[in-house]
Amino acid sequence: MKFLKALAVFLGTIIGVGIFGLPFIAFKVGFFVLAGYFVVMSMVAILINIIYARVILGTDRIHRFPGYVQEYLGSGWKKFSFFIMAIGLIGALLAYLIVGGNFLFAYFGSTFGGSIIFYTLIFFIIGAFLVHRGVKSVSSVELILLCFLFFLLVAFFVKAFPFINVNNFKGFDLGYIVLPYGVILFSLWGTSVIPEIKEMLGSSIALKKVIVSGIVLSAMIYVFFIYIIQGASSVVSEDAISGLEQALGSNVIRLGFLFGVITCFTSFIALSLTLKKVLWYDFGLNKNLSWFLTSFIPLGLFFLGFRKFIEVISLTGAVALGIEAIIIVFLYKKFLAKKIFQKMNPLWYLLAGVFVLGIVLEFFLFYARII
Question: Domain tally for the chain?
């Protein structure tokens, strides 16, 4: 049961709002190009998560990411790493608020009325309450919701299967070849919750099993979901679900909206808990103040007008998570030298270079969007 709860928290963290941007990306670049991306990026994500887990397991003191950076790279890097991690987590939480509120409105709005902002606030209040309760409450909820999520995915597939057209998978456009990078990286990232998993399991072998199985399962679920959406849609909408209404009807679409609420909600509570504990453990803030900042900064950004979720997750994934990955590589280097008296394999520098390239390309994409 401990392993299942830990896996549920890890999967709940990874499988979030990114799943709804991926079919639109696949529609632009091509299904098989995106599937190839997942093969490569899954291996990259596993490698980064594993070396970060080794640092966590080999360190006696309990930290979150900035605390481990301080212990091995120094106090100056702690502030920088916190800034990067906070941007990544806040960007993710903002994306979950945007899409989670939209899906909640789409599911309940026609029956009970109310605005998108009203349903976003409901989504926020329930999530913030569970985060205030702590990890034990979250892990139990994650396991229940994850089981329900799998049930909904299978039911959605059964309903959509008769409408799948294999011709929708033909073709590709290399003009969009860089587009999937940031969204996929965002969709497979789980480093932020690894300290939580270590607290839950306390075992090196079990933690590595959670990481590998969690990322592989997540990638499989993503590709399966993309297959359903792209196969059943002549034109894929940005949120993936609403574009299916003409083919599948409103009742099936409501099932898809419920699936959307569940996936966003599980990630929202897990990542909120992580940011709260970074502020609490590593920066010594009051527990309640940490919770307040974690909860209300993303909500404030939402009310300031940041509501385009594909742009949010693409920039967050390529830049914030890319920089975090580079820091993890050098963190691992210092860990090996200090704890095990070993040198890091030079191939890790090549991997860090891939993330640098991804950051540069994402800035070019962002510049192209705004002009």
Answer: 1
